[in-house]
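Review form for a predicted model. The reviewer records the input and the model, then writes brief findings.
Reviewer: anonymous (R2)
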Amino acid sequence: ANEPMQGVPQGVRALLEEASQGASCGVSKKIRAKKAEVRQMKLSVEEKPISKARHRHARGRTYDPQSKEKHKLKWHFGQQMRAKGYLKLAEGPISATLTCFLPKPKSWAQKRLKEAEGSPVTTKPDIDNLVKFYFDVLNGIAFSDDKQISSLYAEKVYSDTPGVAIEIKPIGEK
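Model under review:
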Protein backbone atom coordinates (compact mmCIF):
# COMPACT_ATOMS: atom_id res chain seq x y z
CA ALA A 1 0.00 0.00 0.00
CA ASN A 2 0.98 3.60 -0.52
CA GLU A 3 1.68 4.92 3.03
CA PRO A 4 1.89 8.70 2.34
CA MET A 5 -1.62 8.56 0.88
CA GLN A 6 -3.11 6.64 3.81
CA GLY A 7 -5.66 9.29 4.91
CA VAL A 8 -6.63 10.41 1.39
CA PRO A 9 -9.94 9.21 -0.13
CA GLN A 10 -9.64 6.84 -3.11
CA GLY A 11 -11.04 9.30 -5.71
CA VAL A 12 -8.69 12.10 -4.68
CA ARG A 13 -5.81 9.62 -4.47
CA ALA A 14 -6.36 8.60 -8.12
CA LEU A 15 -6.41 12.24 -9.25
CA LEU A 16 -3.22 13.02 -7.37
CA GLU A 17 -1.43 9.94 -8.74
CA GLU A 18 -2.42 10.95 -12.29
CA ALA A 19 -1.20 14.48 -11.64
CA SER A 20 2.14 13.26 -10.29
CA GLN A 21 2.63 11.20 -13.47
CA GLY A 22 2.13 14.32 -15.59
CA ALA A 23 -1.38 13.58 -16.85
CA SER A 24 -3.71 16.50 -17.34
CA CYS A 25 -6.57 15.72 -14.98
CA GLY A 26 -7.57 19.17 -13.73
CA VAL A 27 -5.71 19.04 -10.41
CA SER A 28 -4.18 22.44 -9.80
CA LYS A 29 -0.53 23.01 -8.93
CA LYS A 30 -1.69 24.46 -5.62
CA ILE A 31 -3.26 21.13 -4.55
CA ARG A 32 -0.20 19.16 -5.67
CA ALA A 33 2.03 21.48 -3.61
CA LYS A 34 -0.14 21.04 -0.51
CA LYS A 35 -0.01 17.25 -0.93
CA ALA A 36 3.75 17.29 -0.59
CA GLU A 37 3.93 19.34 2.61
CA VAL A 38 1.52 19.73 5.50
CA ARG A 39 1.28 23.27 6.76
CA GLN A 40 -0.97 25.00 9.24
CA MET A 41 -4.55 23.68 9.19
CA LYS A 42 -7.51 25.81 10.27
CA LEU A 43 -10.81 24.06 10.87
CA SER A 44 -14.06 25.28 12.35
CA VAL A 45 -17.62 24.29 13.05
CA GLU A 46 -20.50 26.60 13.94
CA GLU A 47 -22.51 24.75 16.55
CA LYS A 48 -22.55 24.62 20.33
CA PRO A 49 -19.29 22.98 21.54
CA ILE A 50 -19.60 19.39 22.77
CA SER A 51 -17.61 18.01 25.68
CA LYS A 52 -16.45 14.42 26.06
CA ALA A 53 -18.88 12.13 27.88
CA ARG A 54 -17.97 8.93 29.68
CA HIS A 55 -18.68 5.59 28.06
CA ARG A 56 -21.91 3.99 29.22
CA HIS A 57 -22.57 0.44 30.39
CA ALA A 58 -25.86 -1.36 29.70
CA ARG A 59 -26.81 -5.03 29.51
CA GLY A 60 -23.22 -6.15 29.94
CA ARG A 61 -21.93 -3.99 27.09
CA THR A 62 -19.97 -0.74 26.95
CA TYR A 63 -20.82 1.90 24.35
CA ASP A 64 -19.93 5.46 23.39
CA PRO A 65 -23.00 7.70 23.79
CA GLN A 66 -21.44 10.29 21.47
CA SER A 67 -20.64 8.06 18.50
CA LYS A 68 -23.23 9.79 16.26
CA GLU A 69 -21.94 13.28 17.07
CA LYS A 70 -18.34 12.15 16.51
CA HIS A 71 -19.21 10.56 13.16
CA LYS A 72 -21.05 13.70 12.02
CA LEU A 73 -18.12 15.95 12.97
CA LYS A 74 -15.56 13.58 11.38
CA TRP A 75 -17.48 13.89 8.13
CA HIS A 76 -17.74 17.70 8.51
CA PHE A 77 -14.03 18.18 9.25
CA GLY A 78 -13.08 15.74 6.46
CA GLN A 79 -15.15 17.74 3.94
CA GLN A 80 -13.62 20.99 5.19
CA MET A 81 -10.08 19.61 4.89
CA ARG A 82 -10.65 18.37 1.33
CA ALA A 83 -12.17 21.71 0.32
CA LYS A 84 -9.14 23.57 1.72
CA GLY A 85 -6.67 21.16 0.11
CA TYR A 86 -5.39 19.53 3.31
CA LEU A 87 -4.83 16.12 1.74
CA LYS A 88 -2.23 14.66 4.09
CA LEU A 89 -2.19 13.82 7.79
CA ALA A 90 0.09 15.94 9.95
CA GLU A 91 3.25 14.03 10.84
CA GLY A 92 5.59 14.36 13.79
CA PRO A 93 5.02 16.67 16.75
CA ILE A 94 2.26 19.23 16.31
CA SER A 95 0.99 22.31 18.06
CA ALA A 96 -2.77 22.76 18.46
CA THR A 97 -5.01 25.66 19.39
CA LEU A 98 -8.65 25.08 20.30
CA THR A 99 -11.04 27.98 20.84
CA CYS A 100 -14.57 27.17 21.95
CA PHE A 101 -17.17 29.89 21.51
CA LEU A 102 -19.97 29.19 23.99
CA PRO A 103 -23.42 30.80 23.91
CA LYS A 104 -24.21 33.46 26.48
CA PRO A 105 -26.88 32.54 29.05
CA LYS A 106 -30.32 33.82 28.01
CA SER A 107 -31.10 34.79 31.61
CA TRP A 108 -28.50 37.56 31.64
CA ALA A 109 -29.45 41.25 31.36
CA GLN A 110 -28.78 43.04 28.02
CA LYS A 111 -25.92 45.08 29.50
CA ARG A 112 -24.17 41.98 30.81
CA LEU A 113 -24.71 40.16 27.47
CA LYS A 114 -22.95 42.97 25.57
CA GLU A 115 -20.02 43.05 28.02
CA ALA A 116 -19.60 39.25 27.92
CA GLU A 117 -18.62 39.02 24.20
CA GLY A 118 -15.16 37.45 24.07
CA SER A 119 -14.80 37.15 27.84
CA PRO A 120 -13.56 33.88 29.39
CA VAL A 121 -16.08 31.24 30.48
CA THR A 122 -15.63 29.87 34.00
CA THR A 123 -18.61 27.48 34.02
CA LYS A 124 -19.19 24.01 32.60
CA PRO A 125 -18.32 22.34 30.26
CA ASP A 126 -14.78 21.69 31.50
CA ILE A 127 -12.15 22.68 28.97
CA ASP A 128 -10.28 19.37 29.23
CA ASN A 129 -13.41 17.48 28.16
CA LEU A 130 -13.89 19.85 25.20
CA VAL A 131 -10.28 19.24 24.15
CA LYS A 132 -10.64 15.45 24.48
CA PHE A 133 -13.80 15.34 22.37
CA TYR A 134 -12.53 17.42 19.44
CA PHE A 135 -9.10 15.80 19.27
CA ASP A 136 -10.70 12.34 19.41
CA VAL A 137 -12.80 13.41 16.41
CA LEU A 138 -9.70 14.61 14.52
CA ASN A 139 -7.80 11.32 15.11
CA GLY A 140 -7.16 9.79 11.70
CA ILE A 141 -8.39 12.91 9.87
CA ALA A 142 -5.96 15.73 10.68
CA PHE A 143 -3.29 13.64 12.41
CA SER A 144 -2.74 9.92 12.89
CA ASP A 145 -3.07 10.05 16.70
CA ASP A 146 -3.61 12.77 19.30
CA LYS A 147 -0.42 11.65 21.05
CA GLN A 148 1.37 13.79 18.40
CA ILE A 149 0.13 16.97 20.09
CA SER A 150 3.14 18.32 21.98
CA SER A 151 1.91 21.86 22.49
CA LEU A 152 -1.68 22.85 23.25
CA TYR A 153 -3.49 26.11 23.86
CA ALA A 154 -7.21 25.95 24.63
CA GLU A 155 -9.72 28.58 25.65
CA LYS A 156 -13.46 28.95 26.00
CA VAL A 157 -15.09 32.34 25.53
CA TYR A 158 -18.62 33.72 25.27
CA SER A 159 -19.90 34.56 21.81
CA ASP A 160 -23.12 35.40 19.98
CA THR A 161 -22.34 32.62 17.49
CA PRO A 162 -21.38 29.36 19.23
CA GLY A 163 -18.75 27.21 17.57
CA VAL A 164 -15.26 25.78 17.65
CA ALA A 165 -12.08 26.93 15.88
CA ILE A 166 -9.12 24.56 15.67
CA GLU A 167 -5.65 25.37 14.38
CA ILE A 168 -3.05 22.64 13.90
CA LYS A 169 0.50 23.15 12.74
CA PRO A 170 3.72 21.15 12.76
CA ILE A 171 6.13 22.24 15.50
CA GLY A 172 9.08 24.13 14.11
CA GLU A 173 6.98 26.04 11.56
CA LYS A 174 6.62 29.79 12.07
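Findings: The beta strands are 41-45, 56-58, 61-63, 94-103, 149-159, 163-170.
Further findings: Residues 30 and 106 are 45 Å apart (CA to CA).
Recommendation: see findings above.
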